[in-house]
Fold this protein.
Amino acid sequence: MVRSDHVSTPAELSDFIEAAGLLSYDPAAITRIYAGHPNRLLLRLWQTLMPISLFLVGVAVDRFTGLLNNPGRARERARECAQLLVALGPAFIKAGQALSTRPDIVPPVLLEELAQLQDQLPGFDGALAMACIEEDLGAPISEIYTQLDREPISAASLGQVHRGTLKGGQAVAVKVQRPGLREQITLDLYIVRNIAAWINQNVGLVRSDLVALIDELGKRVFEEMDYLNEASNAETFAKLHQHNPNIAVPVIYHEATSRRVLTMEWIDGVKLTNLEAVRSLGIDPDHMVQIGVNCSLQQLLEHGFFHADPHPGNLLALPDGRLAYLDFGMMSEVSRESRTGLIQAVVHLVNRNFSALSTDFVQLGFLGEEVNLEPIVPAFESVFGQALEMGVSRMDFKAVTDDLSGVMYRFPFQVPPYYALIIRSLVTLEGIALSVDPEFKILGAAYPYFARRLMEDPDPDLRRSLRDMLFDGDEFRWQRLENLISSASLQEQLDVEGLLDQVLDFLFSPKGGMLRQQLVDAMVDRLDALGWRAVQAMGRRLPKRLQPPGLRGVEPISMIDAQLLDLEPVQQLLVVLRDVPGFEPRLLLRRLPRLLAEPDLRRMGLQLAQGLAERGVVRLLRDVLVAPEARRAAGMAPVGSF
């Protein structure tokens, strides 16, 4: 945070107090506070616009002279930009972090540097921290804590953390907000918002609404500055994951928590990136990463409430094998419609249906309905086509998102805030995982969870997505079903009975009609073959003079031929299910009453009887009553062919 020796006037002190009282982001209120009293504003403008202007002049010179075309020089300038934002203070750091997830606004090279922005800053005076705690909690430190360290153990842009012990003996971490932070943030947001408005009005190359981006940023920063909100987030997160034995969340102590002070359970653990320390706990780092991936996917696709800042300092491996989540200031929500839309987009991606994928991007809010999708479809094919050759599990998420960022920068994309935070979350998680395993692929680690979700979720839209994935036109793709179930079976929490119910739901769904017809046709073939063999066997036992003309001198169908006419769909399904952990044939027998009650099963029985009757008539007229020589002379199909 930039400090100065400027002496505040009474009017400025009034602004300062009014800004300190803002509990939520309100652009109109912030404008009213600072527009009428320009002195403090002008000072901060000088502190911010001067270094920004000097940087932009340097970039303009590099561009005019062609130096910016050199990748090394472009990278150097991008790095300078990130460093400048850190020097300008918390609001600019947060703005840079927000831009790091906006490929529709920022060119790829700058995107990469902004993605590495850290908001670690030097701590502030411990005496100020103690004064803030006493002021906010309304009591002396000694009445609340048995012991509280004056020196912080860590510090970030918004606050710092002290270690202590409550009167009840509980070890705690106490987060204290920087003095004057809310006032500094409101002033900087006012400045940044006006800069954004000027760019939107005067720079035609920028398609996105930068003012809306700053307003979204302001809303999130104000939420992050409210530690009561963070406490609520932590408890919501803990409740959602209370049945997951692999996840730990610190307890919040409300009697020692306020808007600027947060007291939570102290958790002893080690960062996932400290591999030796993790192994010294007797824990496999790869297993911890898988727990983190599964938990993140559960947050995104089931709960719709996710931790948007899972950096190494916020994820700890505990001695008991659990993964602890810390710092719940930056959380986000994804609507059920968006969660379903994301899964549908993955289905269309796996099916290489890039036209449907482009429509998904419209429905998800990335593209306006008026946008021409024709040039975007081949761009998607170029980005994803080659990566899909290796299979979803081998796709390089970072490389694909980088390529996709280029597409989003070229075409009129507008990235929804929830998606930006999802990408930030997953890229950060992948970065942690890569430090554990350089060959890690987050899509490969995520696909088993995705498969289980697709197989088990009763949501009608996801049922349609499953059918879209399993059918290629009118052809049922057994290999895709096998891959899905095989991937889903890798999940520890796989519900085998639920999976069987979904398979039956699918079989008797409207789209399953084609599969049901395959089963009926296969059964007709099989029963007809068995019946024909029985007729041949009976015919051979009759005296030759009593044998019907069609059975004289005909070789019986061999057992190998009979096996070739087996019930392939049933065989395929049993082969797929056999390898699922926990599957037993009795699980199918339990579902017999349900099967017998299905109206479509009765219809299948009628179709089977009709098919066998038709085959029987043809057998009688063609294969029993007509001699082989007559059939050959007439050019009729050989016995056993249909």
